Amino acid sequence: MASTLTTVFIALLVLTTLTRVWLGQRHIRHIQSHRDQVPAAFADSISLEAHQKAADYSSAKTSLVISEAAAQALLLALFTIGGGLQWLDESWRSVLAEPEMLRGALVIVSALVISSLVDLPFDYYRSFVVDARFGFNKMTPSMFFSDLLKHSLVGVLLGAPILGAALWLMQGAGDYWWLYLWVVWSVFNLLMLAIYPTFIAPLFNKFSPLTDNSLKARIESLLTKCGFKSQGLFVMDGSARSSHGNAYFTGFGASKRVVFFDTLLERLDTDEIEAVLAHELGHFRHRHVIKRIAMMFFVSFVGLALLGWLKQQDWFYTGLGVAQSSDHMALLLFLLVSPVFLFLLRPLMASYSRKNEFEADAYAAKHADAGHLIRALVKLYRDNASTLTPDPLHSNFYDSHPPASLRIAKLLKKA
Ligand SMILES: [Zn+2]
Q: Sign of the C-alpha dihedral, residues 12, 15, 19, 21?
């Protein structure tokens, strides 16, 4: 059984990595072969220069994703069949044999730190080389590292209790530990959703109340028309880090708020902002957010039940390069290895998400104006240098949003 798991794991790791590389290369080839001409539907609104910038920016980002995929696959192979986790486990055992729970937590944290260190140069390169070359990066290296520090501190503060709870339940809560952990995990996630907008997001960005009164009046009338109450309209200083524009509607219950990136407000007129917000409200009205949370609860339930069973199988450890079974290794192996097994489900999730986008667009067309949304989308695509000509297969596999041409074609029918 152990050798079967090893074989299946290696085969899937190779297959997923090759798929990621192949899709990325297809995407770049497709974009480059359409670089010389702006698609007819956008010929009036997007210049050839902007189109070519989008082509080159998308290609550069995709190349980076390909290298990152290769690096992550290599690290995972080294961790598992390469004996890396086994080595980490033994190293900590020789430093600190007891208490077992603390040692387990240290093993998990070290593996996660190593894994983020591998991602770090890619993140740095993305901001300071790729985004900088195309004029999007507004961050300084000191900001990058202070963000990293803050993210790590928040990660430790929030992650430590949940990791502690997991190891404690695994050790002492009997056969149904995974069910209790699922309850803890679900409550934790709901709590995070509630406190994120008010307590965590402000650690990274400044939020100030929206002051433009005519825009405010317009948005409030849209909210009322669509039957929404919000805890306030905010502007976020997205421009401090990047010149990409965005808007979102966040939180649930009493902490719901509408957040606009300052970069979005700078570029769109009142009509367009209203249409973008109507799209976001569409996500809420169609319960996309709640459905996503429900789906996450279901997936974590199945995942933890599976882990409850795998934890007791010796082949689960030996098949993945770990000699002795232990609670922390079961948890760590599961966290690291399950994405490989889930990768092939990605097109399903992406297609579901694209369906949601179409629904939100239709809602915006009904409650605001389809023409205004089209104008906003064209501006956002242009200013974010998003490609208008993605490889169809790449887009079907990964993209959470449908290609601009499809969204606009559907909106045109409603305009
Ligand atoms: Zn959307």
A: positive
- Cα 70 to Cα 122, 124, 282: the distances in Å are 12, 17, 38
Phi, psi of 247 (to 5 degrees): -150, 150
| Catalytic position from the list 280, 357, 383, 391 | 280
Residue 210 C-alpha from the chain's centroid:
27
- 320, 6 contact by CB (below 8 A): yes
Q: In degrees rounded to 5, what are phi and psi of residue 233? A: -110, 125
Continuous H helices in 345-391: 346-367, 370-383
Give residue-wise pLDDT tens across range 17-75.
Answer: 999 999 999 999 999 999 999 988 888 888 999 999 999 999 999 999 999 999 999 99
Distances (CA, A) of 161 to 59, 96, 182, 307: 41, 21, 14, 20
- What number of other Cβ atoms are within 10 A of residue 415's Cβ? 12
Nearest to 321 by CA among 142, 131, 80, 136: 80
- Give the pair of three-digit tokens for residue 182: 């699922």
Q: pTM for this structure?
A: 0.84
Span from the CA of 248 to the centroid of ligand 1 (angstroms): 9
Q: Is the pLDDT of residue 288 over 70?
A: yes
Q: Is the peptide bond before 39 cis (omega within 30 degrees of 0)?
A: no
What sign for the dihedral angle of Cα 129, 130, 133, 139? negative
Any catalytic annotation for residue 280?
A: yes
* CA–CA separation, 405 and 415 (whole Å): 15
Q: Which of 68, 89, 361, 369 is catalytic?
A: 361
Q: What's the gap in Å between 12 CA and the centre of ligand 1?
A: 32
Give the largest CA-CA distance in the chain.
69
For 177-194, how does the pLDDT look when each residue is reduced to its tens digit (9 = 90+)? 999 999 999 999 988 888
Cβ distance 13 to 342 under 8 Å? no
Q: How many CB atoms lie under 10 A from the CB of residue 56? A: 17
In order, the DSSP letters of 24-54 are HHHHHHHHHHTTTS--GGGTTTS-HHHHHHH
Active-site residue, 361 included: yes
Distance of CA 277 to the CA centre of its chain: 21
Give the CA distances from residue 175 to residues 101, 169, 304, 333, 334, in Å, rounded to whole numbers and listed in that order.
18, 10, 12, 19, 18
Q: At 291, which amino acid appears?
A: K
Interatomic CA distance for residues 195 and 288, integer angstroms: 20
